[in-house]
Write a structure and sequence with these properties.
Layout: H1 5-26, H2 54-85, H3 91-121, H4 124-127, H5 174-185, E1 197-198, E2 201-202, E3 204-205, E4 210-211, H6 245-255, H7 258-272, H8 278-282
Antiparallel strand pairs: 1-2, 3-4
Helix pairs in contact: 1-3, 2-3
Length: about 290
């Protein structure tokens, strides 16, 4: 078969599409080590529920890509079929319609072939079983919180519950603690996080947004009340479950006390530093 310039271009495009599609399918199974939670501002069309991290975002793109290939191919086949039926004997129009239909079928076959090839090699490649192991940057047991408790995210010293005077247990870091407190909660004592969620229950509470799924505040065995320590990735609002509402309520009450919350935050800082709070990273506190 003699390849014309047009056929050469077509084959190059098909090969490029094949390589690109394989790349898109392989990338999501790569495990990334990160301590940060990626929260997209916009959702992916056709997805439902929460996209609570980078892995789920990539998974949503993957599913969207699969749907796009099928819908685009079907649309082009319909267009080509309509052109063919309305050609009324016009040879040029009939040829164009056949080309559109053939190219659409080629594209669909390439996509399905890539999927089938990866499935034969390893079914996990098309299962998109993404794993991300968070890097612990602070003390053991998770983070203080990522903020989002309803406060205006300002990076300036707070007043009231977040005043430097009320952060005296932080010593020379009292001003930084005041900044983090203001960014995390705006000084509101019993405020729940709107971001950190274990199912429908907020994971982080109080002026310093203590994560009760990871920390045993107020002498309570808080971690036993939840199935895992919320970190937004391997343990997120979809995978974390409330196991004991009674213990959880006692932990919420303890975390809602400004004095108890602040003292516990001091202990956390002394053992793990400021990286345990998302607001500290946002405000450049270190």
């Amino acid at each position: 078969m003699v390849l014309t310039p047009k056929n050469k271009i077509k084959r190059k495009l098909i090969l490029a599409s094949f390589v690109l599609f394989i790349g898109i399918m392989v990338i999501p199974v790569v495990s990334l080590a990160t301590g940060y939670t990626y929260t997209p501002m916009e959702g992916i069309p056709g997805t439902t529920g929460d996209i609570s991290g980078f892995p789920s975002y990539i998974y949503a793109i993957y599913k969207f890509g699969i749907w796009t290939v099928g819908i685009a191919a079907m649309l082009m086949i319909i267009i080509g079929g309509f052109m063919y039926m309305t050609a009324a004997g016009n040879t040029s129009r009939t040829g164009t319609a056949k080309t559109i239909i053939t190219d659409a079928i080629y594209g669909l076959v390439v996509a399905l072939a890539a999927y089938l090839l990866l499935f034969i090699i390893n079914p996990d490649l098309v299962g998109v079983n993404i794993g991300m192991t968070p890097v612990q940057t602070g003390g053991t047991g998770g983070t203080g919180g990522t903020g989002g408790g309803g406060a205006t995210p300002t990076c300036s010293p707070g007043t009231g519950n977040c005043s430097e005077a009320n952060m005296s247990c932080f010593g020379s870091q009292a001003r930084n603690a005041s900044i983090v407190c203001q960014a995390e909660s705006g000084g509101q004592a019993g405020i729940p996080s709107g971001v950190d969620k274990c199912g429908s229950t907020s994971a982080s509470w109080g002026v310093m947004q203590i994560n009760i799924t990871c920390h045993n505040i107020g002498g309570n065995n808080c971690t036993s009340a939840f199935s895992c320590c919320y970190n937004g990735t391997s343990c997120n609002r979809n995978t974390c479950q409330l196991r004991d509402a009674g213990i959880a309520n006692r932990c919420i009450a303890a975390a809602s006390s400004p004095q108890t919350n602040t003292q516990y935050a001091c202990n956390m800082y002394n053992s793990g530093g400021w990286n345990q709070w998302g607001a500290a990273r946002r405000c450049g506190v270190n």
